[in-house]
Model the fold of this input.
Amino acid sequence: MKRLHKFILKSYFGPLIATFFVSLFILLMQFLWKYIDDLAGKGLEWTVIAELILYMSAQLVPMALPLAVLLSSIMTFGNLGENFELTAVKSAGVSLQRFMSPLIYLIIFISIAAFFYSDNIIPYTNLKTNTLIYDVKNQRPELQIKEGLFYNGIENYSIKIAEKDYKTNLLKNVMVYDHHNNQENVKVTVADSGYMKMTADEKNLILTLYNGYTYEEVKEKKSGRRKKDRAFPHRRQNFEKQEIIFELTGFDFNRSDEDLFKNHFRMLNLKQLDYAEDSLKIQLNNLITSFSKTIAINSYFKKEDFLIVDQERIRKRKEKSEYKTIKKNSVNSTNSSKKIIGKQKSSPKIIIPYNTDSIFNSQNKKAKEDAVKFALTYARSAKNNITNSKNQINRKQETIRRHQIEWHRKFALSFACLVFFFIGAPFGAIIRKGGFGTPVVISILFFILYYIISISGEKFAREAVMPPYMGMWLSSFILMPLGIFLTYKATTDSVILNSDTYILFFKKFIKRFLKKSN
Done:
């Protein structure tokens, strides 16, 4: 390895490692800020919190790595340009692409390693993280009482609060329904305000209520009176302060079975995603086929423009009418009947076309109303069937799109490292500013742009506005040409991003303007 290659690799490794851990720490703080309400006040052991932070840190690596590559590239080449080391390299006849070649191979290796990490490690960390967060959220659910909703997490009680002050923990307009006797709402406590706190041993919850009353229906003795003669006795008790103690047995921290979450698309690798997608497509095709057959048989061809008539039945009716006529005339009734009976023993069915509109118009008013009611009922049933089938098909298609999005995500995040390197390295060579000041600002702006485009593309793919591959690669398609353009400008020693160039341009413009005015 040439001494120049060792120099550039040594200059790059330090900022890369430092910026990686800084980026990972910032993203981890964002995660903790998001779930602080679920973690605070739960009485969790430090080992549980440490395990959650460990799994979440491993989960954030694919997102922190592209940001670290971008920031370290700008810092490294900015320092080299600021110290005129890039100028010395170019004056020695070494082009910028040749000087960057060791780092290009390094970034390609990092991208490949990031892909295998996303395919093998990320599904495992997602499973562990989501299972652990689910267990944390469901521990001591009495702390999750929300405003305006009945909470039934405490056994034999139903609690509702109208408003909650999160600074003072004051509860307003509290309603407590007691269901200990397995009856309806026979005992209700209503208060203007109250406080809720845990005991020191965290086994009981004390609800202190102020200015309210307790209403309780008393069970009436069976005296043989009729139901309409019942008196419905009750008892009402007013209070200024009342304490209700809830036992919190069974709310300890328990680990859930990971098999409940392992089939989620975020917990699958590439092979599992392909297998799950094929299965979902087969289910979708079966669902569409079944729906098509059902709707074709029961709805589209319900109306018939022909009538199948049994010719044998018509012949018997004719025989009966002829027999009556012969009997009335008393002319050879026996012979006539034998001749009639001796005619065709069996005859095929015939098809007689008819018009439904003419048959409907020939009916009376009641028959028409019954026919219209039956048609409306049938139409509503068919509409509900179509709506339900459509919702099932849409949900199945959305699930398939989510699997495809997750499949492309593993490649897109890895390729982002390469994209950010070709943006950061030439950008740092052009601006020639090192340190943490300017590179951090520029890196944040580029990363925010990348993140916004990625989120928008993923949303478009999830809502079927564009195909999943296009939505997940949209940010790379937009930023990669920018990287190629910056690399070209850095190779040709462009001053497009040099502030002194624009300052001199405006100074010359102002001087020319002043000369013309004089």
